[in-house]
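Morning run. Coffee first, then this:
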Amino acid sequence: MKIKTILFLLSFSVLFNLNAQDKKVLFIGNSYTDVNNLPLMVRNISTSMGKTLKYETHTAGGAQFSTHWNSIATSGLLEKIQTGDFDYIVLQGQSQEVAFPDGQFNSSVYSYAKKLDSIINLYSPQTKVVFYMTWGYRYGDANNCPYYPPFCTYFSMSERLYQNYSLMAHDFSSLIAPVGAAWRKSIITDSTLVLHSGDNSHPSLEGTYLASCVFYSTFFQDSLSSQDVPPGMNAANCAFLQNISNTIVFDSLAYWLQNENVCDNPTNLTHQISFSTSDTLSAICDLSWNGTSPSYDLRYKRINEENWQRVVVNQNTYQLNLPSGNWQWRIKSLCDNTSQSFWVDTSFAFTASLYQINQNTSSFNVYYTKEIGKIIINIENIYEDLEIEIIDLRGQALIRLNAKPKSGNLKTEIDINNLSNGLYIVKIKSNSSSNSFKIIKT
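And here it is:
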């Protein structure tokens, strides 16, 4: 359904019995739950592991959190919540809505998820809510990409879903079934095993199987080693996907299951980017955050890479020196030997100039004078008309002017007092040549 232009298209206070062999679950969602009968596959996996899973479903194609909330009294959902005696209730949002920009997410997604979570806690306080973290479209969402860049690729859309499902689970003290995180690891590890179906949105049989593995371990807190092979799959793929699921779930079990050993999250994550005076055009990234923990686990990586770089920090700041690109960093508090917070994630990007830096041409003298806030350009033995551009590190021309030499010489000044401090490229072009120079405004 098409929304107006400013919107986007829609296509442990409760005790866990860790030894319990029986669980009862209500799945609330849409076709991401229905396709390949995810609940039945979870039950079959549970049976193969000697566990019993009873389940009910409440789904509708394309349903959002608001869909379920607005029809809660007439659809039978409220009655299920009140009388079902469930161990877990799974909440799954529409495939795009949890990735919406903050304003739209807060008003049309977060608020309805909160209402559903609250009414579950009211009528069924013994039940734990589990958010079904989904995944990005295989090639991104082409319809929403022009309006919001995180929709443009599988990885960026998945990252946005990760962030917002984690946000809701943290704010509501609920659990996460990290299906989207498991998909991401599987795709990075072996992209030939296709988890999307032909529409590049819904799961293939393998995609549903991986989701089922994650749900099994989330419900039973048990590592999966099933020999059962669903029809249409092979044993090698099953084993591979089980291993992916086990790695993702148990690598951060405290995070996904919100156990009691959780301390305060870092807040107000910020980063400041500056540039070195070397010709490498690498960035100095000063990271900072608020928190009272004695130490922090800080990790960073390029967004499309799998492996994190890790450092333990004993203060609330840290400096990175990075080449240009799209970077992500995350941090969590380490309060004592058994207590840690949830991960808090953020990202940033910067791009060095694509122009080759050339400051060795003898007839050119280009420099910045801080006292007057101007770039000074002196050129000798030049007989062609020139175009001069001041370009930022995104490649955008902020100032453009034409200049005519007199008697083979050019001297001009360019006022850059209105530009922010940082690194800029001065590009000087004629019909026969092009030269670029780096200046740093301080």
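The chain is about 25% helix and 30% strand. Good start to the day.
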